[in-house]
Structures are given as C-alpha cells and as structure tokens.
From TrEMBL:
Top-level taxon: Bacteria
Coiled coil regions in record: none
Keyword annotations from UniProtKB, A to Z: Membrane, Transmembrane, Transmembrane helix
Transmembrane annotation, as ranges: 20-38, 44-64, 76-102, 164-183, 261-284, 296-327
Subcellular location: Cell membrane
Main location: membrane
Name of the protein in its database record: Tetracycline efflux MFS transporter TetA(P)
Pfam families cross-referenced by the UniProt entry: MFS_1
Record membrane topology: Multi-pass membrane protein
Amino acid sequence: MGITYRSADPVRTYRIYKTVWSFCAALCFTLSAVYYVREAGLSPLQLVLVGTTLELACFLFEIPTGIVADLYSRRLSVVIGVALIGCGFLLQGLSPTFLAILGAQVLWGVGYTFTSGADQAWLADEIGADQVAAVLVRTQQFGLGGTILGTVSAGALGLLDLSLPIKLSGIGMIVLAILLGVFMREVNFHRTPVGERETFKHMADTFKHGLAVARKRPVVRTLVLISLIAGLSSEAFDRLWQVKILSFQFPTVFGTSDPAFWFTVLGLVGTLLTLISSLILHKLSPERLTATHPNGVLALLALLQVVGVLAFALLGNLWLALAAMWLRSIADALSWPIESAWLNRNVESRSRATVISFVSQANAIGQVAGGPPLGALAGRAGLRTALVASGLLLAPIPALYARLRTPAVEADRV
C-alpha cells in the first residue's frame, strides 16, 4: 500500500529544508563561541579541541554514513542526519560542560556526514541531474535569507539567555527531521551497485589516485600543499578569534554592551562586507577571476590573509582588530571560488571528484594535526602567541602561489 502523504514537491521540499537548516545553523552558531567561553568556561585549548573533535568525527564517519545513502535510502540518510544534528545542538545547549560539548560535536559531526552528498543526490534522483544547478542557485538565496533571520533571532534571544538560541536550534532541527520523514518523497531512488559504493577501500584508492595526480601536475600538487598548510593554521584561528574579541570592552549602543548583541552585529557586518567585496571584484576585474592561471591574484589574497591574521593577533584596539579579522575573512572568501575553478581546470573529468576529495582531505588532516598544538600553545604562552603562530603558518602560501609558472612553462618541465 502506497504512502500518499509523502507527496510534497521535491523542489519545494528541498528549499524549505535548506532554508530551515540555514536558519537553525545561524541560530546555533552566532553566539556559540560566547556561550562556550562565558557559560561553559572553556579554555583556549578546549575550544580548539572542540573543533578538532568535530573535524575528526566528520572525517571518520564520511564513508560509513555514505553507505547508508547508497545502499538503503537517500531520504533515510538525510532524516537520520538532521535528527542527529538537532540532538547535538540541543545537548550542548542543555549542558554547558566540556564533555557534553565534545559529545555534541560527535553527534552533529556524524549527523552532517549522513546529510553530506545525500541531500543533493536525492534531489538529482527526484528531478533529474540536468535540473539541479538551477535549483541550487535559487535555493542558495533562500538559505541566505534563513541565515540572516537566524543571526538576528540569535542576537535577540541571546540577550535573554545565551543557551536559548542553541537549544531552540536543536529543537528546530529535530522538528525538521520529523517533517522530512513525513513529507520527503523518494520515488526514483536506485541502490548504487556494489562496485560504485563508497567504502574504506574506495577511500584508500581515492587517496592513492589523488596523490598520483598531484605528483604529476604542479598546480594540483601545490594546491594540495596549500590546503594542508591552510588547515594547519585555520582550526586554531577559527576557534580563538572569538576569545580575543571577548577580551575587549564593547561600547554601549541602544543601551546595551552585551556580547550577544555585538556578536550578532559583527556576524551581519562580516557577511555584508564579504558580499560587497565579491560584487566589486566581479564588477571591476572579472578577467582576473576567470584567468587560466590566476596565481597572481591568489598570491595577493593569500598575503592579505597573512597580514590580517598577524595584525589581528598583535593589535590591541577593538576596531582595528575587527578590521584585520574582516580583511582575513574577505580575502579567504574571495580566493575560494578562484582556486576551486583553477583546480577544476587542471584535472580531467574522470578524476575531478577524486582530486577535489583529496584536496579536502588534506585540509581536514591539517586541521586535526594543527589545532591541538596551537591550542596548547595558547594555554602555555598566551592567546597572542598562538594567533601569531597561526599567521606565520600561513606565510609560505603567497610564495607557493607566486612560484607557480604558466602552464606552458610547466609543460616544458614535466
């Protein structure tokens, strides 16, 4: 007997799913750093270990959870993942302790791997692969609206109780999982053949093949190394910049100097500045973004990231430190699509997904390896020292970009 109540239009279902996801994520993450420091009292090392635990959970469970999506059901994988993420959000909101927060990272990290790839694969199954690109572009706009609304809501609720937006985000994700279980239809799913399923052997083969391609192609080899170095630096900075910002005295605006208000404002301003910078760059110099060999612009953006991190570490003024932080964030956001397009142009179609996966693995390995030592350094030598070390780790990247020759010159050397 057919289940007729699972008949919602897949495009509408996907848009609602991603919009609610974006809203709940912003509701949870906007003030999570303030919550970790003020309510849970986490040290710099503990903050970094929280991020490392999340990265490790995602890395270890990506393959086993992918098997569920391939073997049983994309829909089931998404529903399980969203529910686990909701439980993780809720756990850390209910218990402001280090162990509970670590457990929450495992829950929502594993949950994320259940949804990773499965949601887009489900969409492609239901509407056809040729229709996916247009839906994703439009859905991204809905997601941005959800992020903005979630950020503002987190700020308002955080003024009442820092844990409130985190707990509500968890409840919201659990409700979303229930609704997806009821309304998310799946009529075109076909199990992936055994030989094509993601397995640990397949992951090992992916690593070996990616390494072989990287050895042969200077651009790919350099981008893998850059991804590893960026990972070594980023985990500590991403977790410790909030600690430094919280050390400043916020000015009083609209009768409040509450960090919940200011972190909401900072999140919105950072998003807006990045968007404006992207639009300006696309308007004034589109040829640099689509250049066949954009090593010059990437070297400049990488240098701006190094300057931003080091300036943020050393400056003792709130507004100057924020300007440095935004410089780093904007340069990072602008460089990603340029680098991604460059990587895609330097690998064949048959090995593209493998090589991109290999580059992502290099970044994850860097984060897991680099985060704890820098967190320990922050505890022993101080926050400024750890942030300076994070910036110095990035220092080789501009030179790595700059030394890459044009494809014609490289071809002569290979």
